[in-house]
Specification:
1083 residues, 50 helices, extended
């Protein structure tokens, strides 16, 4: 088959399989050098050469070098036919791979041969520059060298290049860049600058800063010429670089900064290098930046690229100057230190002014280039300011005399320049679309990230000079309000505002951010006392700014939602400014009413923009909560304002998104919860403003008016019939109504007797809803939350029967999830914990009714949970621990209830399932052995201690009767606890607590006290034998020999008979036994 028709990959692969590398490289080289061969075959041939290159003999590699050089020389021009760029690139890679293996020992002229190619005209220069770029990629970079041997080889080649050839490479680049820029040379100059940017970070600094070859001065001169020669429309004039090439030159100059840092030069030497008069670094940057700034309105892309490169250069030099200043502050040489620090500070001021100038550019790409330096400067200048304050307070020390301290007044001009730039950069660009999620668009995401960084810079300045920031914002607000008021007075309210919305939003945003984490805000917003002795203090700038904003109707009615957002959010951020009116201080309350009206009218919850009402509802809740003492006086006004939103509309489940929005109106039901919570706060706080005789009637009236519309659907007799057609829609409607009633209840913290009937009516409605829609998770979730609130707000006697019915409805559901099961356990425990300490509540009957159902559901779920992995076992253990905690709370309130259930005759139970006692004991034994999550074991032991101690307080006859029934069950429990005893970790605090409870339980069982002392000798003997048998059974298999188990069991049981005051000694005995058992077991 002819060579051209064969598959390239099969051809090369066949050659490798049939022949060793020594006989393979020649045909592969011939295929690659064949000018008429298929491109694909030539490509795979050169790839094959690269693959076998390390395995070839030295002579074979030396046979490749002249052939490769001859090929590259033909590509430099002359009579040879120009090959495809892909093949030339692959040849360059092959050349560098050969160089990596042979240089410098066996191919010392590799770099010289490369530079000779560069002397062969324009095409040769391009190939030489390309080879230099590939050297950085294949040799210098560590990314392609995963092994230690490869990294050592690369380091060796780099060291040889530094010693022998770097000066030649830099000289070649210098001579090339000295040639006047022209269109044919532009690509070569650009590649050459990229080479310098790649090489500067790792070559010797002497090769860069060379008086006989002023490379940096040449680059700066080219950059200056580029800025001065830029055309009006962005095109480059003859003899100068275009914007992209000049920006690449700036990157190369910036790379020198990294080399200076790695060089670890003294600070004075670094400063001397940066201020070298022959380089003219700072004047060149400043001149080029100001020249390009004058043309920023034309928006040429090349201008922006060059300005961005100059900004990055300014950023690099500025950070280096800042590091020099920090290093010089550690110098205690009085004779030389102060002059150097002063010179460094002056240069730093120039760099900050230049960076601030760049920062204010309209292009975010340009502004981002200097943001890092400005943030670093503001962060580090704090130390200089602290030094100035120390010198003002006392005599300066030796180091303070040497260092240059900076006062706040010196920084004012720098900070003001930054603040002006910040106010410009935080404003949203005209193209920003709030309807697009930032995560879905890189352009929006990048702007938000930059805005966040600029905000941090602003907050740092506010930390250093707070009053300057407040005065700057006051002046900006004054200008803003004056412009809006003047325009409204001249053109009327119907005309569009004279200022763009993003400028207004930026000022309000900075005012909002300035108050974040500022503890001095309440003091700053206080009204100056009228009777204060002269001189009368002037109002704080923040108070002046807020007064102007909330006294400017055009600003409060600004049409853009971003502006309204900050106007509303500042009602909460600066709540101390909006204090309700007090007697004799009416000036404090004037703006409270302004804020309240702002939230309730068309500028707040009634605004047509769908983004404003949800925010207004949330702010209204926080606003009322912050001023609750004064806000209750306006309960009727607030109630009338939010009344249209207190009725929840029914929305069919099949309704479209448009139909749902039309039914909901301005506020989604999730957002209306804020209004219900606000109403609850006002009703609950009425006692603060009304007399005792009017409180009950007012609370009852408002609460009934709020809850009656919500209860209507639940008590409608036609609901069950109507819901058959749309059960999902009606269930969602009911769930929202129950959620709303729960939100209203948040405003109350204790029972109010006059409201018991209202709450009872609401609870009955929820019970009806659970009967009809208990199969829906959202109905169950909000019903459970409402029941929990009722435990706090209703008297216990009125609550017990309703809660018992409600819990029965919960337990009747068969689709309860694990999260709901845990929530129910927490709720039952909450009931038991709330009932503790309330002797008026008949809890025993309630708990006796609720506990079996609670246990049945949780026990069934616990049994069904799989335990095939560690994660599953942990989840099952957590469910078990939650049950033990709930039963502990029940035993704490009414241990008689659990004892009665445990002693109940098994004949009374359902024949289809195990008795309660058997399942409860099984759960306890499993928990003693398997529960190792949190406090589960501790709760289990505490529960059994409470049960056993309850027996001690009963009559001997009752104790005898209960023990006769629970004898076998108690024996199983003791055996289980003894088994878990030797699994405890004596170093774990939780396990030590479990050990204390276990010792407490065991001592109670074996030491005759209370009713146990009246037991018969046979029963007391049975308890002791049960304890001994349990411990010995747990030790079996853990110690060698039956006698060892017997001896340890006797010792532990004997320790349990110690007097009551020796609890610590008993615990230590058991701890020693546990350690001995653990040490005897194999690891």
């Amino acid at each position: 088959m002819p060579l051209q028709r064969q598959s390239p990959l099969l051809t090369v692969g066949y050659a490798f399989k049939r022949s060793p590398p020594e006989s393979t490289w020649r045909p592969c080289m011939e295929w690659f050098l064949s000018p008429t061969g298929p491109i694909a075959l030539r490509f795979w041939a050169v790839k094959a050469l690269m693959e076998v290159l390390p395995r070839l003999y030295t002579g074979s590699r030396h046979g490749i070098i002249p052939l490769l050089l001859q090929y590259l020389q033909t590509q430099c021009g002359g009579d040879g036919r120009m090959d495809e760029s892909t093949m030339v690139n692959q040849a360059c890679v092959l050349y560098v791979k050969l160089m990596r293996v042979e240089y410098p020992e066996r191919w010392g002229s590799a770099v010289d041969d490369m530079l000779q190619l560069g002397a062969r005209g324009l095409r040769g220069g391009e190939i030489c520059a390309k080879l230099l770029v590939v050297v950085d990629e294949e040799i210098v970079s560590d990314e392609l060298h995963p092994t230690q041997e490869e990294r050592q080889r690369s380091s060796h080649v780099k060291a040889a290049m530094r010693a022998n050839d770097i000066a030649k490479i830099v000289s070649w680049c210098y001579e090339l860049l000295r040639q006047p820029p022209s269109p044919p040379l532009a690509p070569l100059h650009l590649t050459c600058l990229k080479v310098l940017g790649l090489y500067f970070p790792w070559i010797d600094l002497s090769a860069i800063v060379n008086p006989s070859m002023p490379l940096l001065a040449l680059l700066l001169a080219r950059v200056r010429q580029s800025a001065e020669g830029a055309g009006e429309k962005g095109e480059s004039q003859c003899g100068v670089w275009d914007g992209e090439t000049a920006a690449e030159a700036c990157d190369a100059i910036s790379a020198v900064r990294g080399r200076v840092v790695k060089k670890k030069m003294p600070a004075a030497s670094k400063l001397s290098l940066l201020t070298d008069g022959s380089l003219q670094l700072t004047p060149t940057m400043e001149g080029a930046i100001h020249r390009l700034w004058q043309r920023q309105g034309h928006h040429p892309q090349q201008h922006l690229e060059l300005l961005g490169g100059l900004g990055e250069l300014c950023n690099a030099v500025g950070e280096e100057v800042l590091d020099c200043l920090a290093a010089m502050h550690k110098d205690n040489n009085i004779n030389a230190g102060f002059q150097g620090v002063t010179e460094c500070w002056q240069l730093l001021e120039r760099m900050v002014n230049t960076a601030s100038f760049v920062f204010g550019h309209e292009s975010s790409r340009v502004s981002e280039s200097v943001e890092a330096f400005l943030s670093d400067f503001v962060g580090k200048v704090k130390a200089l300011m602290a030094m100035a304050q120390q010198q003002q307070q006392g005599a300066p020390t030796l180091q303070q005399q040497t260092n240059h301290a900076v006062s706040v007044e010196q920084l004012h001009p720098l900070f003001l320049g930054l603040l002006r730039g910040i106010a410009h950069k935080v404003s949203y660009p005209p193209w920003y679309d709030f309807c697009i999620a930032a995560d879905d668009d890189d352009r929006h995401l990048e702007f938000l990230r930059f805005r966040k960084e600029v905000t941090k810079l602003f907050q740092r300045i506010a930390t250093l000079d707070e009053m300057l920031v407040w005065e700057f914002l006051r002046a900006a607000v004054d200008e803003l309000c004056a412009a809006l008021s003047a325009h409204t007075a001249a053109a009327g309210t119907s005309s569009p505002p004279p200022l763009p919305w993003n400028r207004v939003e930026a000022i309000l945003y900075l005012l909002f951010v300035a108050g974040e984490k500022n503890r001095g805000i309440p003091q700053a917003l206080k009204v100056p006392p009228e009777n204060a002795p002269p001189p009368h203090p002037s109002p704080h700038p923040l108070r002046v700014s807020l007064t102007r904003i909330y006294s400017c109707p055009p600003l409060l009615a600004f049409p853009h939602h971003a502006v309204r957002t900050h106007v509303l959010e500042m009602l909460v951020r600066y709540s101390a400014f909006f204090l309700p009116p007090k007697r004799g201080r009416a000036e404090e309350g004037s703006f409270f009413l302004v804020g309240l009206q702002l939230l309730l009218d068309e500028r707040g919850i009634r605004n047509a923009d769908q983004r404003t009402p949800p925010l207004a509802a949330s702010v209204l809740q926080k606003y009322v909560k912050a001023h609750l003492n004064g806000a209750v006086a306006y309960t009727q006004q607030i109630y009338e304002g939010i009344r249209p939103f207190l009725t929840l509309p029914y929305v069919p489940f099949t309704a479209s998104e448009e139909g749902q929005r039309a039914a909901w109106g301005l506020l989604h039901p999730d957002d209306r919860t804020h209004l219900f919570e606000t109403l609850g706060l006002l009703i609950g706080g009425l006692t603060r403003s009304l007399t005792a005789g009017d409180v009950d009637a007012a609370k009852q009236s408002y609460l009934q008016s709020a809850i009656a519309p919500l209860l209507g659907p639940m008590k409608d007799p036609q609901l069950a019939a109507e819901a058959l057609a749309d059960r999902e829609g009606h269930a969602e409607w009911i769930a929202r109504a129950i959620q709303a009633m729960g939100c209203i209840s948040k405003g109350f913290s204790k029972p109010v007797p006059v409201l018991n009937e209202v709450w009872r009516s609401a609870l009955d409605g929820v019970t009806t809803a659970m009967k009809l829609f208990g199969g829906f998770p959202r109905v169950r979730r909000y019903s459970l939350f409402f029941c929990r609130r009722m435990v706090t707000l209703m008297s216990g006697g009125l609550l017990m029967s309703s809660l018992a019915s409600m819990l029965t409805l919960f337990y009747a559901q068969h689709n309860l999830g694990l999260e709901e099961i845990n929530d129910l356990a927490i709720f039952v425990g909450h009931i038991a914990a709330t009932l503790v300490g309330d002797p008026q509540v008949p809890a025993e009957g309630f708990l006796e009714c609720v506990t079996p159902g609670f246990f049945d559901v949780h026990y069934r779920v616990w049994q069904q949970l799989p335990d095939g992995s560690a994660e599953m076992r942990r989840e099952k253990s957590e469910v078990q621990s939650q049950m033990f905690h709930t039963f502990y709370l029940i035993a704490q309130r009414s241990p008689h209830t659990l004892l009665k259930l445990l002693a109940k005759d098994n004949a009374d139970t359902d024949a289809t399932q195990q008795p309660f006692r058997d399942r409860f004991v099984h759960l306890s034994v499993e928990g003693a052995v398997n529960v190792r999550s949190g406090m589960g074991l501790v709760y289990l032991l505490q529960m059994w201690c409470l049960l056993v101690e309850c027996l001690l307080q009963t009559s001997p006859q009752e104790t005898h009767q209960v023990l006769s029934v629970l004898q076998e069950s108690l024996s199983r429990v003791v055996h289980g606890f003894a088994e878990g005893l030797f699994m405890l970790d004596t170093q774990d605090p939780t396990d030590l607590r479990a050990l204390n409870e276990m010792c407490r339980l065991f001592r109670t069982l074996v030491c005759p006290s209370g009713s146990f002392a009246a037991l018969s000798a046979s029963q007391q003997g049975h308890l002791k034998a049960m304890m001994h048998s349990g411990i010995r059974s747990a030790l079996r298999g853990k110690l060698q020999g039956d006698k060892s188990c017997q001896a340890m069991a006797d010792n532990l049981v004997q320790a349990l008979h110690s007097p009551p005051g020796q609890s610590a000694a008993v615990r230590d005995t058991f701890r020693s036994a546990i350690r001995e058992v653990r040490q005897s077991q194999p690891t």
